[in-house]
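User: What would this chain look like folded?
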Amino acid sequence: MASSLICGEVQSRVSSVLNRDVKQCGKKHMFDSNEETCWNSDQGEHQWVILEFPQFVKISELKVQFQGGFSAKTCRLEGFSKHGDFTEIARFYPEDDNSPQSFPIQEAPVVDKVKIFFENSADFFGRIIIYSLDVLGDKAS
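Assistant: Here's the prediction, encoded as structure tokens.
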């Protein structure tokens, strides 16, 4: 059974943080289980999140909660393969609302790093706001 792959050993990077204010708007807030905090990107197209896992994993589901009005219209999940290249795993299309959303990932390859591209935003300035992000799957043997 799939479980959360997010743990203290997962390294994360983001494309930007609103006004570089990592204390109030930083990436750590996507993973803190606090519904009062969030990652808030700065303006601009093509925002992204990179997650680097401590071991190889097989992803089965992505869970995300945006702030309505600041969600992505189109998202692309890419994985870093054993061969050293990012390859597309899946595309998904979130609703523009505040509810938690789940996106099953079919037949994902074994990876140790993923990049989630938010290709376009519902916000005119391209900002993305995420209250929670979780990746479910299994550790690869």
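Residues 59 and 137 are 4 Å apart (CA to CA). If you want, I can go into more detail on any region.
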